[in-house]
Amino acid sequence: MIAAAERMIRPHRVGDRLFADVGATLVSAAGNQYSGVCIDTGSGTGFCAEHSAIAAMVTAGEYQITTIVAVWRSETGDLHVLPPCGRCREFIRQIDPANLDTEIVLGRHRSAPLRDLLPEHEWPEALDPPRRSADTVTPADPGATVGLV
C-alpha cells in the first residue's frame, strides 16, 4: 500500500501552492483500492490526500475503509508515512461508523486502528441534568404558553 500511495505523488507548483506532493491509498471493505492526492489551495479550500482517496471510494458507492496510508517525499528524497491529521481522522470516522476499526498505516511495520488515534469520538454526556425554568417550554408540556399574562 505504501508503494501505491507513493506512485500518486506528482508535485506540481502553482505560485506559492504545491499540489499532489502527498499521496494516499486506501483499501475498502470490498477489497477495492482507491488513491488520491492533496490539493493545497488558499483560504482553506484545499484538502488532504486522504480526503481525495475517500472521495473516490464514495463516488464508487463504498463507505467502509479497511486500511489507509498517506505518504510524502521530502526534498532530500526521503519517503515518509504521514499519520492522518485530526480533520482526516474525523472525516474517516464520519464516512461510516465501522471506520473506527480502519487500520491506519503509520510505517512499514506499524499501524493502529483509527479508534486508538481518535479515542474521544462519542458525543459527551451532559455534565448537569437539564434545567427547567418557568419561561421554558419542554417536551413534557408542549402546549404550554410562555410569557403571556
From TrEMBL:
Belongs to the cytidine and deoxycytidylate deaminase family. Residues 21-97 form the CMP/dCMP-type deaminase domain. GO terms for molecular function: cytidine deaminase activity; identical protein binding; zinc ion binding. Residues 120-149 are annotated as: Disordered. This is CMP/dCMP-type deaminase domain-containing protein. PROSITE patterns: CYT_DCMP_DEAMINASES_1. Keywords: Hydrolase, Metal-binding, Zinc. Coiled coil: none annotated. Residues 120-134 have a biased composition (Basic and acidic residues). The lineage of its organism: Bacteria, Bacillati, Actinomycetota, Actinomycetes, Micrococcales. It comes from Pengzhenrongella sicca. GO terms for cellular component: cytosol. One of its GO terms (biological process) is nucleobase-containing small molecule metabolic process. SUPFAM superfamilies: Cytidine deaminase-like.
